[in-house]
Amino acid sequence: MKIYGWRIGFVCLLLGLLLTGCGSDTAVTQTNEMQGTITVSGAWALYPMMVRWSEEFQAIYPDVEFNISAGGAGKGMADALSNAVDIGMVSRAIYPEEEANGAFWVSVTKDAVFLTLNAQNPVAEALRQQGISRETLVGIFITGEVTTWGQVVGQPDVTDPIHVYTRSDAAGAPATWAEYLGKKQEDLLGVGVYGDPGLLDAVIKDPLGIGYNNLNYAFDMDSGLPVAGAWVPPLDVNENGRADAAELYDSKEQAIQAVLDGTYPSPPARELNLVTNGQPTGLVQAFLTWILNDGQAYLEESGYVALSAERVTAELQKLD
Known about the structure:
The protein is α/β, with parallel strands linked by helices. It has helices at about 1-20, 25-35, 45-60, 75-80, 95-100, 125-130, 135-140, 150-155, 170-180, 195-205, 215-220, 250-260, 280-290, 310-320; strands at about 35-40, 65-70, 85-90, 105-120, 165, 190-195, 210-215, 230, 270-275. Strands 1, 2, 3, 4, 5, 6, 7, 8 and 9 form a nine-stranded mixed beta sheet that branches.
């Protein structure tokens, strides 16, 4: 009996050690080791997703704090390279000169810039049938040759002028939209308005207005429909003179699907990036690694497109 009792005691002791080594106490210890503050600034396109990621990360590691602000991709890049923030949000490609200056970047998701009109646009019904071509958009935003809504749909009797709005801040959305039209942000015509929300608000207040917005500003997060007062018209991508089913973006779901399957052109679809000054270490590296692993699970419900498994693997290798 003594031997049997000794065996029971040994097994209990062994189990106790195993539970101590593999149970919640270790998780708590690991959680407490992750602490500090991460500062982030930059692209409006990534701002909503970054807020969500920070909340989920903080739920796991409550001793980590975040300071996150939007202000455009240009600000995010400048702040990151000057060490004003730990991470810059950049919603465009990284330029070679920025890499030469120390910009280290990883792609974390994909979204797109969409054309936005006022819901009361005077030729809305015709646009729903025809869509709007890239050539016409060049005439509106670049050359200024298309000046009335009647010209857009081939109805010369409609003389309502087009009121063009663009971004006043250096940002990924205007850079991407201009790239789609074959130019740079400084070539875009229109009244300059600061930020994604400001640009959308200008269009909503003007029945003759035209602008462009990142996906998660053009569509309402709760309803999945265009933001009240705004409308996302179809692009005639294949230039057949009509809006095909795949070219309709009446809901966020349709817009995301078009980006996901490549029906929506790239640009204005593009990857979104996080930038640091040099290769990140410590807490910032851990956060970026978490985004590429666990953080991808929150993209779809937040209105973003997840990276392919192959792309995630490639981006994780950068962080090793």
